[in-house]
Amino acid sequence: MKKFFAITFIFSVGLIITACSDVRRSPGDVYMPDMAYSVAIETYSKPDSSKFTDKPSEIGEGKAYYTADPVPGTIARGDEMPFPYEMDKPGDSTNYVASKQVQNPVPVLTAVQMKEAERLFLVNCGICHGPKLDGNGPLYKDGSGPFPSKPATLVGDPKYAAMPEGQMFYSVTYGKNMMGSYASQITTRQRWMIIHYIKSQQAAKAAATTKPAADSTGAKAKTDSTAKVK
Q: What pTM did the predictor assign?
C-alpha cells in the first residue's frame, strides 16, 4: 500500500513539474524554411503577393520565391506543338486565313494510331459530324434531332475536302461559326491526329468515286467480229 502511494506521489509531482515548466513550442531556426514549410498555391490563381515574390531581392522579407515558369529543360503543356496564330477578334478573319499555311506537325499515323484517331473523332466529333463524317450525327439526325442546322459534311463536300489542315486545326482549337472550341477536351496532338483521320477518310472517298479509265483496246477486242476464236 505504501508503495502505491509513493508511486502516485512521484507521478503527481512529475506532472506538476511538467505543467509548470516553460515548454519550448518553437523549433528555432530552420534551414531553408521555404522547403521545410510548403505554402500552398491555389490552382490557376494569382499567387498572394504577401507570401510570394518573383524578385530575388525580396526573398529575405519572409516571402517565397515563385515565378510559375516551367523548370529549365522542361516543356510547358501546349508548347510541344505551338500554333503560331491566335484567335481572331470578332469580325476579323486574318489569322483564320493565315492558318492555311500551317502543316500538320504529327507524322503520318500508323494503323494503331489511326484507330485511336478514329476513336477520338467518334467520341468528340461524331455526335455532330456523324460516324460517317457526313454531317448526320445524333444531334442532327436527318433534321429530326435537337440541332436544327446540319453540321459540316467533312467527307463528300468539296469545300472541306480542300480545306488545309492548319485551317481545320484553327477551327477545332478556337471554334468556328456554330462549332465551339475543343481545346479543353482534346490535346494539341489529339487534334492533329483527328485531322489526319479526317483527311484519310476524304482521300478514301475520293479514291472510291474516281472511275478507272476505260480500256479501249480490250473493249475493241470484245466487239471485233474478226477476232480469232480459239
A: 0.61
